[in-house]
Each structure stands twice: as structure tokens, then as C-alpha cells.
Amino acid sequence: MSIDNIIDYALSKPNNFPGKHNVPTIRTFKQQQPLEPKSQMLIIWRAFCQYMDDQLRAGRSVNIRKFGAFTFDVET
């Protein structure tokens, strides 16, 4: 299952997954079109993955409340 499928599923069931992510976000520059919910979710997912990658490569662990703790131990 890909992240696109997960996002499509979550956005198709707003009663199960309520929140601001279900409506387009107004841009700060008024001439731009609102950012669609799927685009918003993809931006958030990519930023999350990049943050996790940066932290783990720097040797730090990441604890996300109600989601999980991520770390690794290198055996030498």
C-alpha cells in the first residue's frame, strides 16, 4: 500500500478522520489557488520523512507522541 492510497482513503472518510486537512487551505498570496487536501497531506508526509531521516542520520532518536519512538543502534 502506498502513501497515496492511505491519503486517498483518509480523505474519502471525513467522518472517521475529521480535521482541517479535509478542506483546501487558503494561500497567503491571494492570486494562487487554494492548496488541495491531497497536496497538503503529501507535503506534510514528505516533511515528516525528511525530518525523520535527518534526525536518525544525525544519531538522534525521534519520539512522536501517540505514534511511536524511532531509533537505531549501530553495532560495531
Describe the protein.
The chain is mainly α. It has one domain. Helix content is 41%, strand content 8%. The protein contains 2 helices and 2 strands; from the N terminus they run ααββ. Helix 1 packs across helix 2. The longest helix has 21 residues. The mean pLDDT is 88.
Query: Uncertain segments of ≥5 residues (pLDDT<50)?
Result: none
Number of domains: 1
Number of helices: 2
Global mean pLDDT: 88
- Roughly what percent helix? 40-55%
Report, as a whole number of angstroms, the end-to-end distance.
Answer: 34 Å
Q: Tell me the strand order in the biggest sheet.
A: 1-2
**Global morphology:** elongated
Strand content: 5-15%
What summary fits the major beta sheet?
A: 2 strands, antiparallel
- Computed over alpha carbons, the radius of gyration is 16 Å
Q: Care to count the β-strands? A: 2
What are the secondary-structure elements, in order, as H or E? HHEE
Structural class of the secondary structure composition?
mainly alpha
